[in-house]
Design goal:
The complex is a heterotrimer of chains A (331), B (411) and C (265). Chain A has 331 residues and is an alpha/beta fold. Chain A has nine helices and 18 strands. The relative contact order of chain A is 0.12. Chain C has a nine-stranded mixed beta sheet, with helices on both faces. In chain C, strands 2-3 form a two-stranded antiparallel ribbon. Classes of the chains: A alpha/beta (331), B alpha+beta (411), C alpha/beta (265).
């Protein structure tokens, strides 16, 4: 592998079920800066079926080139099919850096692709920069549940791959009239589809409600919420503020709320504009998932709870008294 | 103090402590409030091998004895005496079967008993036959290859949830107590139904039901031992099971102390932790000493029992004979008095400790949010079931009189 | 069915302490245990074994003391345990680690055909989630990550439900395949008495890189593609505004005012 042959910064634009993932715009922000620092192009890779219409959107948001792999075989995400197509693209076009969103899909896809390609991968980075001395990618990521940050490089192989934590970067703004190149990647899909695995069906989340990763306001509850019914109160506030409900680990373990709402090291990472932590003590494991919120409000009976020190607004009080009162004022 | 004398007993303590911490404690308050059986906990017990502790490895058990059973029951009851009854009553229901069963019966029932796939329960008490078990009115009249059972049992622990019921019946009412026999009756047998579900003071997570038998045809292969020997098997069963109740009582007392002492250490009144008030501190010391005395009584007894029980089981398996027969061959001692003493002492200690702990902690302990009032409610049953404290005194007294009569009036 | 569960010994997550000066993990006094996410992987393997019959083998890569996590696996229901223990493995990143594990699994497969490999979602020390998908890449077999439920176990395939941000997807994978499971999938049992006793007597098979025919130029801190060039303790800023008031209601009113004032709502 001659690493000098590898040029340009790639991002994987995740598209599923007719929607472009908002992470695509975040990766465009991160990738644009890397590409500019390297004086290279920013390229987006789009896989799926009927996804070509997202190409111009990606260009408007900062991509110079979009590789489009549009095929019925790519309708649904299957690890092997996607990873093989990506590996083939990498082999043909030799990118220098490759960012993939650290979504559930991206985590698995990036890992598998890295082995197929034979290169190093950094997981779940929150910050990516180019080292000016050697042009290498410095990917910084939290480890030990956010207790320690580590900066990781991949010196000898290309592309340097990295999955980027959702919400770690702002979404790139659209620029009208921005032009770029769309390259349709023609391939024989049957060559890439694994006969050993098949997609059966997609099951929409039953609970409905707003997806945590898209919510600008999150009202999250901890053990202090006390019960399943307690979460109904939080839901009222979330609905009133146009946001979503989340939880720390305790209530999930107690069965008051579904695991999909868990925020923290063992759950989801969120970065809303406003995060209202109700009855959450603020263990490091929870903080790992929400410390990126723009504004954190803590409502807690215990003034010494760790969350009260990490919050921008700390309210000492019983959530069962405070939230109904807030609802009254907001009404 | 731990009374484990071998690796197996130590691991029983370790396993049940982990089970109590991780599974029982998070569930107990909710299940007590709901007053329902926990299928989830049943499954956990099954996975961790709690039903086979005392059964031979040949049937998928652990090969432990009465001590392992008692230790598990103590540690589980230390967290929740109600949830502890799922394996506890299954053992109680199965002990008479295990003692009296033929090789064929053992092979039929023990594997599913040991794995926990099937739950057992014990049905002796009737509306008219409580402390006086000989007064039982449930009849089982032979009809060809079947017994036709009629009657009602009540206050049956793990009722409706259990699959097999060891039922004390009279197969020959004309002979009175000498007609009492034990039958294994399976749930789902036509004519066998469940009546009232009791609402109880304590051990609320264990369902207590009335069992109704209306012309229930039970295959004669389900008779344990021989007809008319029921009371003998029952006495033997209670000899082995009462130390279990005593162990449960010790667990309840210990659990109450586990909650009380940390609270007394942190609760400040008059500017100091209240445990430093000697009146309170000395009371705690006294309760701890009584609990420890109870524990010593239980395990001293069960270890002695195991020196006989385990060889008898081994011989029964080797010879294809009932365990009861092998016990008789080995029997040097009758346990009735000691079992009764252990149960009498420990159940009184449990009640006293739980009661005093509530008083020591004060108002908070009267509230359901604090896990102490439950111990007081649960403790009470240990003074009642498997023979009330008064019946235990009768057993002790009867044994003493016999003992001294045998010695003659030497003095 | 022969199932291999992959486990790792990691510091207990509750008491990880980092030296703020050096950015290093303070090892002394730090207890190690099975990576909590691996408990779900092993539990699922044991549950499947109970359902359809078969055997559970467990593999780990780590220093000699990592043997403890294998004995713990026995206590939790595993049948056989294997350790990749060789200085050549030390300091491997996920790419090299998954390679080594895949070689170990190939060796296990040569002893008895492997049908299913189950990993935890991620570890609590490195949090990557790479190992499951990467093992499947090395072995060229299908995988599914973020598996929350085993829907059905067929003769030649397994149907699983995996978690996505907007719901879940059901996929069917032929054996052999790799699953990485999330904690929603089960509730790990406690160690049984029998398991605890067996754990002490179990044989731990230790393999070197040569034993599993792993290419040493692909292993260890000097050969793996990535390396850590810097580590540091993140700064946490503290400048909370205390929302004051005579009672909960007053504070609630004040909070809503503050949030509105700053255009947060």
């Amino acid at each position: 592998m001659n690493i000098k042959d590898y040029k340009n910064v790639w991002i994987f634009a995740q598209a599923q079920r007719g929607k472009l993932s908002p992470t695509a715009y975040e990766l465009l922000t991160a990738g644009r800066k890397l590409a500019d620092d390297l004086h290279e192009k920013l390229c987006a890779v789009l896989l799926g079926h009927n996804v070509q219409n997202f190409a111009q959107d990606l260009i408007s948001h900062g991509a110079d080139v979009v590789y489009v792999c549009d095929d019925p075989a790519l309708e649904n995400y299957m690890d092997d099919t996607y990873a093989r197509v990506l590996a083939e693209l990498v082999a043909q076009y030799k990118p220098n850096k490759f960012l993939i969103p650290a979504t559930n899909m991206g985590r698995s896809l990036s890992a598998k692709t890295a082995v197929f390609v034979g290169t190093g991968l950094t997981a779940d980075a929150t910050d990516v920069t180019i080292n000016p001395a050697d042009g290498q990618l410095h990917a910084t990521r939290p480890t030990f549940g956010g207790n320690l940050m580590a900066t990781i490089t991949c010196a000898k192989t290309r592309p340097e791959m990295c999955s980027l934590r959702p919400m770690a970067y702002e979404k790139a703004p659209a620029q009208t009239g921005r032009k770029g190149e769309v390259i349709a990647f023609k391939f024989d899909a049957t060559k890439y589809v694994s006969p050993l695995a098949k997609f059966v069906e997609f099951i929409q989340s039953k609970e409905g409600g707003l997806d945590l990763s898209e919510a600008e306001v999150i009202v999250a509850g901890g053990r202090g919420v006390g019960s399943k019914d307690g979460f109904k109160l939080l839901e009222k506030l979330a609905t009133r503020l146009g946001g979503a409900v989340g939880a720390s680990r305790g209530p999930v373990d107690s069965g008051w709320i579904d695991y999909r709402y868990q925020i923290g090291l063992t759950g989801r990472t969120v970065k809303p504009k406003l995060y209202i932590a109700c009855g959450i003590s603020g263990q490091i494991q929870h903080m790992a998932g929400m410390s990126g919120a723009n504004v954190i409000v803590a409502i807690n009976k215990d003034p010494n709870a760790p969350i009260m020190k990490a919050a921008h607004f700390a309210l000492e009080g019983d959530l069962h008294e405070v939230i109904p009162a807030m609802l009254e004022v907001l009404h | 103090m731990d009374y484990a004398i071998n690796e197996m007993e130590q691991e029983v303590l370790n396993a049940t402590r982990e089970l109590a911490q991780k599974k029982l404690k998070p569930l107990r308050a909710e299940m007590d409030a709901k007053e329902t059986f926990s299928k989830e906990m049943y499954e956990e017990y099954r996975k961790s091998g709690m039903f086979g502790l005392w059964l031979p490895e040949e049937y998928g058990g652990l090969g432990g004895g009465i001590t392992c059973l008692a230790m598990a029951f103590e540690e589980l009851s230390r967290a929740c005496a109600g949830l502890a009854l799922t394996p506890g009553t299954s053992a109680l229901g199965a002990i008479p079967m295990f003692l009296a069963a033929t090789k064929e019966q053992r092979e039929k029932w023990c594997p599913d008993l040991a794995s926990g796939k099937k739950l057992w329960a014990f049905a002796l008490t009737e509306p008219e036959a409580g402390s006086d078990a000989t007064a039982l009115k449930t009849t089982a009249i032979k009809d060809g290859d079947f017994y036709v059972v009629n009657g009602t049992k009540h206050f049956i622990s793990t009722g409706k949830e259990a699959d097999f019921y060891t039922v004390a019946v009279n197969t020959n009412p004309a002979r009175g107590p000498r007609g009492i026999s034990l039958l294994v009756i399976e749930k789902g047998t036509p004519g066998f139904s469940f009546g009232k579900k009791e609402e109880k003071m304590g051990i609320r997570t264990n369902p207590t039901y009335e069992l109704i038998f209306e012309n229930v045809r039970v295959p004669k292969e389900n008779l344990l031992g021989s007809e008319g020997r029921g009371l003998l098997y029952l006495q033997e069963t209670l000899d082995y099971s009462r130390p279990g109740v005593a162990a449960q009582a010790v667990g309840i007392a210990q659990g109450a102390l586990d909650t009380t002492i940390p609270y007394l250490r942190t609760r400040k009144q008059f500017g100091q932790p209240i445990i430093t008030f000697q009146a309170l501190g000395h009371k705690v010391a006294e309760l701890a000493a009584k609990t420890e005395a109870g524990r010593a009584l239980v395990y001293n007894l069960t270890h002695r029992m195991d020196t006989e029980f385990l060889p008898a089981v081994k011989n029964a398996l080797a010879n294809g004979t009932p365990v009861h027969d092998e016990l008789k061959k080995l029997k040097g001692e009758r346990w009735t008095k000691y079992s009764a003493e252990a149960k009498l002492f420990c159940s009184n200690v449990a009640m006293e400790v739980a009661d005093e702990c509530v008083t020591l902690c004060g108002g908070i302990a009267y509230m359901r949010d604090f896990p102490l009032e439950k111990y007081m409610r649960d403790a009470k049953i240990t003074q009642i079931y498997e023979g009330t404290v008064h019946i235990q005194k009768n057993e002790i007294l009867t044994a003493l009189i016999k003992e001294y009569a045998a010695k003659g009036d030497e003095e | 069915m022969h199932i291999v569960a992959c486990v790792k010994q990691t510091p207990k997550s509750d008491n990880v302490k980092i030296d703020p000066a050096t950015g290093c993990l303070i090892r002394s006094g730090t207890e190690s245990a099975m990576n909590p996410f691996d408990e779900f992987a092993l539990e699922e393997a044991v549950t499947l074994k109970e359902q359809v019959g078969g055997k559970v083998s467990v593999i780990t890569m780590g220093p000699p003391q990592a043997e403890a996590v294998l004995r713990d696996s026995i206590a939790r229901g595993a049948d056989e345990v294997f350790q990749l223990g060789d200085r050549a493995f030390a300091g491997s990143d996920t790419w090299s680690t998954s390679y080594a594990l895949s070689k170990g699994i190939e060796k296990i497969n040569s002893l008895q055909r492997v049908d299913l490999i189950i990993c935890g979602k991620q570890t609590n020390d490195s949090d990557t989630g790479h190992i499951g998908p990467q093992i499947s890449a090395w072995l060229k077999i299908p995988n599914a990550a973020f598996v929350k439920k085993v829907v059905r176990v067929n003769e030649k395939s397994i149907v699983v439900e995996r978690l996505t941000e907007d719901g879940s997807e059901v996929v069917e994978l032929n054996y052999p395949c790799v699953l990485s499971v999330v904690k929603e999938i089960n509730k790990p049992r406690v160690r049984s008495v029998k398991g605890r006793m067996q754990a002490k007597r179990a044989t731990v098979t230790v393999w070197t890189a040569d034993d599993v025919q792993a290419d040493k130029t692909m292993l260890g801190i000097n050969n793996c593609p990535t390396r850590v060039v810097k580590s540091f303790v993140p700064k946490r800023e503290v400048n909370a505004t205390i929302v004051a008031g005579a009672n909960g209601k007053e504070k609630a009113v004040k909070l809503v005012e503050l949030l509105k004032e700053n255009n947060y709502i």
